[in-house]
UniProtKB/TrEMBL annotation:
Residues 41-218 form the Succinylglutamate desuccinylase/Aspartoacylase catalytic domain. Signal peptide: none annotated. It comes from Myroides profundi. Its cofactor is Zn(2+). One of its GO terms (molecular function) is hydrolase activity, acting on ester bonds. PANTHER family: BLL3975 PROTEIN, SUCCINYLGLUTAMATE DESUCCINYLASE_ASPARTOACYLASE FAMILY PROTEIN. The lineage of its organism: Bacteria, Pseudomonadati, Bacteroidota, Flavobacteriia, Flavobacteriales. InterPro entries: AstE_AspA_cat (IPR055438), N-alpha-Ac-DABA-like (IPR043795), N-alpha-Ac-DABA_deacetylase (IPR053138). Pfam families: AstE_AspA_cat. This is Succinylglutamate desuccinylase/Aspartoacylase catalytic domain-containing protein.
Amino acid sequence: MTILDETIHPGETKTLNLEIARLHTATKLKIPVIVSRARLDGPTVLLSAGLHGDELNGVDIVRQIVHRGMNVPKRGTIICIPVINIFGFINQSREFPDGRDMNRVFPGSKTGSLAGRFAHYLVNYILPHVDYAIDFHAGGASRFNAPQIRIAPENLELEELATIFHPPFLLYSAQIAGSFRNACAKKGIKMLLFEGGKSLDINSDVSEMGVEGTKRFLHSFDMLKDEFSICPPKEDMTIITNSIWVRAKRSGLLHDQVKIGSYVEKGAVLAEVSDPYGKENTTIKAPNAGYVINVNDAPIVYQGDAVFHISKTLKK
């Protein structure tokens, strides 16, 4: 297998360095791509994180997988990219320095924006080797996501893989133009998108679910070495076919009153928004019964801000 002009032989692990651009100080920036091949043939799985540079929980999940040696497969090949957006990771920012969200510029361009150039290299130099992928994300802008897998609807193979990973929630989510997931789908790569936690934060429970789910995923392909034990899921997986965002009707201080992952009835009070002078209190109520899969942890919200993500329809 030859990636980025480096040959990786069976039974070998190599860290390749993807270098596309430098900082404005002329300092080199290299993106480590950790490739590990077994001596036995098998599929190639990509484990990636940090597409948004401030989503650290995903970075921690892939880091743990590498640190524990789970990325050295029993068969096949595992490619780990713990931090894709190294610029955003350094700046603790979601975007690239050019202000673009890399997850909206795929497949990118060799002569395009900085984010587009990185997307181009991923699509043309990494993805041709990949059969399956798990891309790890977290909620942005202080919004905490309950651990969940997102897949395109009406795809039985993806649903089977998601069931093997077995997070608390499986959410049907249509492909978004310009996204990494959409680029993988166009190349026939089966990708699970994991969401859990929030930006600029590492939650140990979310990390554990991500690591354990990945172990179950790799074990299903006989890629996980026998030295690693498989833990059964701690809870049933709820499949959400439709969901809704609840937004703040007024600006003010936000006082959450529900726990992430909990089930609420229609009309239940989810939070209160108050002004700082003690004159007004406005309640935010559930528009329907469902599971709360995202909670805004910000202390202040503006009118129209997304505050809660609630399931609307479940798969029976």
